[in-house]
Design brief:
single chain; Rossmann fold; four-stranded mixed β-sheet; 16 helices; 23 strands
């Protein structure tokens, strides 16, 4: 707050002077390294000067269509150079890119689009029909000839930086505990703080590039794309996980943070070995060590010559709260305790939000500049999760005497499958809508390839109902990775319940593990 000797105007000007935006930081990279390669995909390359000109044209085209600061544009596309151009243009204009998960079923995608009311849907030819199906939500602009014509007809003049650090820049969707995705709004301030956090805790130089293979609707790619482009580095865009292509990149390019998720490690190992060449250089590898066989962690670190990241972050928080620890090359870790990230405060709290002592489990609550700005159009979730001025993650930890953090469980029951988050409620709402189902519950099962997968336990009203029928029902209404790997039909008394009748997932897990 201003002191008694300052006027509100003085304070406002000081705040303005302290602000940084993504556009201004990108502009510095254009000025100092215009001929450096910013984006690469296959044989196509864009320098910083070329990317700057193309995104200026995109900004002017969007403005001509009536898109203004604070408006949303939806992106429905696989990873490609044009997708990154939209992310950069959004940062320049103060527009919000709502990054759609093209793996979702039609009903889920319609919810995500309607939630953010976009002015425009930018789509790739691969997803053109899907975008056309949602023409009642917003008109579409297709990457390819239509997009290139739009850019050619627009000015390449610089776009004035009229953004505020708190302007939203992307909306990334998270699974919802009630069964529908939530849109997490991430500001320019948060993206810059996430970049700074990576540079401090997981440093790499601008000559160590980023291979963006994970979908750009995930923070693991989006955050690092922004970091790379305000650092002056190169983003190598690939159309998803293709082991041979990524192996070729790894033996050709020096890489900074290389994302590998459960299920992708062994194919990548095999592909690199098949090249007969050593990895050119890598600073960090991996994510979600908890879900990877420990011998495999040692194997991949030996092959690439880089430590494995023992991460714990989220879409809402970025790399924090606990992504400061890495597993040494060749180490088979005895434990996977985490280290608190830089530049964040955390508390471990009980059900009444009282801080628990060291050694006692508590839900992790965090304050950090990397935090998102809240769930779009979801005041109930915001009030609950930001209560007391802290963001409550729903994850339970114990703080150890040395300050490390041991993960205990998820207060909000969550299944992490191959890099995707799945809440059981997403699946259960589909199962329970089937008239022949009396009750249903979904739990997680460890899986050697994906880390965890969903498994359903169903009480039938009609004995003719089959597991195949339920799987087909799920495939029609939810994303394929959410479809239960197994459906078990059980009597109602098999399901453990609380005194209020709620099915207790953890107790069911124990019963299943014990063979009960």
């Amino acid at each position: 707050m201003p002191s008694e000797h300052e006027s509100p105007m003085d304070f406002a000007l000081a705040r303005q002077a302290s602000g940084l935006t993504l556009g201004s930081l990108f502009a510095l990279c254009v000025r100092t390294g215009p001929s450096r390669v910013a984006l690469e995909q296959g044989d196509r390359r864009l320098t910083y000067a070329e990317l700057d000109a193309r995104t200026n044209r995109l900004c002017h085209h969007l403005a001509a269509r009536g898109v203004r600061r604070g408006d949303r544009v939806a992106v429905l596309s696989e990873n490609r150079i044009e997708y990154v151009e939209v992310l950069v243009a959004a940062a320049k204009m103060g527009v919000i890119a709502a990054c759609q998960n093209w793996r979702l079923a039609e009903q889920e995608l319609r919810h995500c689009l309607a939630l953010v009311t976009p002015r425009l849907i930018l789509a790739s030819p691969r997803h053109a029909d899907t975008a056309a199906h949602h023409a009642d939500v917003a008109p579409r602009l297709l990457f390819g000839p239509e997009y290139e014509a739009a850019l050619a007809g627009a000015s390449a003049a610089p776009v004035p930086d009229a953004c505020d650090p708190e302007d939203g820049v992307v909306i990334l969707y998270t699974s919802g505990t009630t069964g529908l995705p939530k849109g997490a709004l991430i500001s320019q301030r948060a993206e810059i703080a996430r970049a700074q956090n990576q540079m401090i805790d997981l440093p790499n130089t601008r000559d160590e590039h980023f291979a963006a293979w994970a979908p750009l609707f995930h923070m693991v790619s989006t955050d690092t794309v922004y970091m790379t482009l305000i650092q002056g580095g190169k983003v190598i865009v690939t159309d998803g996980f293709r082991a041979d292509e990524l192996a070729a990149i790894a033996v050709r390019e020096r890489l900074g943070r290389f994302t590998l998720m459960p299920g992708m490690i062994q194919p990548f190992l095999d592909a690199v070995r098949a090249t007969g060449r050593p990895v050119a250089g890598m600073r960090w590898v991996g994510v979600m060590a908890d879900l990877v066989p420990r011998e495999q962690i040692a194997e991949v670190t030996r092959l690439v010559g880089a430590p494995y990241l023992n991460t714990f972050g989220s879409t809402e928080t970025g790399l924090p709260p606990a992504t400061r620890h890495a597993i040494a090359v060749g180490e088979v870790p005895a434990g996977l305790d985490k280290r608190q990230s830089s530049f964040c405060r955390i508390r471990l709290v009980d059900l009444d939000d009282n801080e628990v002592p060291d050694g006692e489990p508590g839900e992790l609550a965090i304050r950090a500049p990397t935090l998102f700005s809240g769930y779009w159009n979801n005041p109930g979730a915001n009030a609950e999760d930001f209560r007391g001025g802290w963001f409550h993650m729903g994850d339970v930890f114990v703080r150890n005497p040395d300050g490390s953090l041991s993960f205990v469980d998820r207060r909000k029951y969550l299944i992490k499958s191959g890099g995707e988050n799945i809440y059981p409620a997403e699946i259960e709402r589909v199962l329970l809508a089937e008239p022949r189902v009396a009750d249903a519950v979904v739990i997680r099962r460890p899986d050697a390839r994906w880390g965890e997968v969903p498994v359903a336990y169903v009480v039938r009203k009609d004995e003719s109902l089959t597991a195949e029928a339920l799987a087909a029902l799920c495939r029609a209404r939810i994303a394929g990775y959410k479809v239960p790997r197994e459906v078990h039909f059980v009597p109602d008394e098999f399901l453990p319940r609380s005194t209020t009748g709620k099915i207790m997932r953890h107790e069911l897990e124990k019963r299943v593990d014990a063979g009960g």
